[in-house]
Design a protein that fits this description.
Sulfite Reductase Hemoprotein, domain 1, 20 strands, binds iron/sulfur cluster, five-stranded antiparallel β-sheet, alpha+beta, Alpha-Beta Plaits
């Protein structure tokens, strides 16, 4: 492994091209369809112990990242990953295979979405012209089968609408902000996604500074130009209602059957937790685990009457099993302890604020504590975001900065943030009491 094959920080790492982080090399594994057989999970746990520091992250795109890999261990790790069937032909094919599908896809017996996801991955890997897509450029297919991906932003997206032409084609954002480009069937998804990706590359190549995301290109040249090149047409905005971020924790009912979801605080897992998940999938489920973009794992098809035993088992292995757990209200990157750009212990500050965050917003992630303005841990909209600068913060409420942090003196320390959140929570409580009277 040469210096050139190890990515600079800020790029999108993979297995063939890991990224240097503070605790060693970071190896990101794009698990096709988010489906992980128990044996694969166990193999990864073993590989993490043998070649890394035994820690893993669940990413906001439903990927699994192995941490602390030693440079000299990399060739052996690559061999192991190849044996597990997790290796792409080359680094470029791996990097472009950035497709997120619903965690429940295929569990209802409809294979359309799983097959479309696999076909799109294959098209992205096989067509070398598409390898020029920026590392973070992503595709999403929402199967409409519970646990909506509606709030997960994506450059190109296909959201289930029902009917024959069942998917709404969208570009640039989450389901309610993406520009709607008409409807298509599941079989059309790989072709349309590839056409939109080519339009993105072609229009971007004519610019002095090509945008790295679809939203940037829409702002520069308009959705009409992108749609036209892809043989599509922007339609009127879709009328869909407010979307709530799903909570994939606990017993989840799905088509008269049940799955069990467990969370991981900040998405952090260790090798023992991976082994525990593999065991649970074999004993309680069908031997398979699904990864989600909400930093949670799902064991499909468990028996509802075993829910207490499953909950107790996962709790004993340090998973989040209670939907009311305040750790589900927060997201934070590794900050100073894991990233060279980090200057602040984001995770301990997030833990100090989680109860205030939860009392302000009862569902989904309420507070994102980011180690810097790159906001790696979460792209989705969040009610409160803190952006760290050497132990002080800019606070952003619903996407608007309330303290722009023009200089360090204006930035907030942890106590000041806590006071603001506490006051807001108190005021919200008072308002709801008054409304009830
Ligand atoms: S947001 Fe966090 S993980 Fe991303 S670059 Fe900044 S400090 Fe590093």
């Amino acid at each position: 492994m040469t210096r050139e094959t190890i990515l600079r920080k800020g790029w999108c790492p993979g297995a063939r091209r890991p990224m240097q982080a503070k605790d060693g090399l970071l190896v990101r594994l794009r698990m096709s369809g988010g489906v992980v057989p128990a044996a694969t999970m166990r193999g990864l746990a073993q590989a993490g112990r043998a070649h890394g520091n035994g820690l893993f992250d669940l990413s906001a795109r439903g990927n699994l990242q192995m941490r602390g890999v030693r440079g000299e261990s990399l060739p052996l790790l690559i061999e192991t990953l190849d044996g597990l069937g997790l290796l792409d032909e080359n680094a470029a094919a791996e990097a472009v295979r950035n497709v997120l599908v619903s965690p429940f896809a295929g569990l209802d017996g409809r294979d359309g979405v799983s097959n479309a996801g696999k076909a799109l991955e294959a098209a992205l890997a096989a067509n070398k012209d598409l390898h020029a897509l920026p590392g973070k450029f992503g595709f999403l297919i929402d199967a409409g089968s519970g646990l909506s991906l509606g709030l997960v932003p994506s450059d190109v997206r296909f959201d289930w609408t029902g009917g024959k032409q069942s998917f709404a084609i969208g570009i640039g954002g989450h389901a309610n902000e993406a520009i709607f480009l008409g409807l298509c069937g599941a079989d059309d998804i790989p072709n349309i996604a590839s056409r939109l990706a080519r339009a993105f590359l072609q229009l971007g190549s004519q610019m002095a500074e090509p945008p790295r995301r679809m939203r940037g290109l829409i702002e520069s040249c308009g959705a009409g130009a992108i749609a036209g090149l892809a043989g599509l047409r922007p339609g009127p905005p879709r009328k869909s209602g407010a979307i709530e971020e799903p909570c994939p924790v606990g017993l989840l009912r799905f088509n008269e059957r049940y799955c069990f979801g467990v969370g991981a605080a900040f998405g952090r897992l260790d090798a023992n937790m991976l082994d525990a998940a593999a065991w649970a999938a074999e004993i309680f489920g069908t031997g398979e685990i699904r990864l989600t973009p909400w930093r949670a794992l799902i064991v499909p098809f468990v028996h509802a009457e075993k829910a207490d035993a499953i909950r107790a088992y996962f709790a004993a292995h340090r998973f989040i099993v209670d939907r009311g757990d305040a750790r589900l209200a927060i997201a934070a990157c590794g900050g100073a302890s894991a990233c060279e750009r980090g200057t602040t212990d984001t995770r301990s500050d997030a833990l100090a604020l989680m109860f205030f965050a939860r009392s302000l917003c009862m569902t989904g992630v309420a507070l994102h504590v980011s180690g810097c303005a790159k906001i790696c841990a979460r792209q989705a909209a969040t009610p409160f975001t803190l952006i760290a600068h050497a132990g002080r913060y800019d606070l952003v409420v619903d996407g608007a900065a309330i303290d722009a942090g023009i200089n360090d003196a204006k930035r907030l320390d942890l106590a000041a943030v806590r006071e603001i959140l506490e006051t807001m929570a108190r005021n919200a409580r008072r308002r709801s009491e008054l409304e009830r009277q």
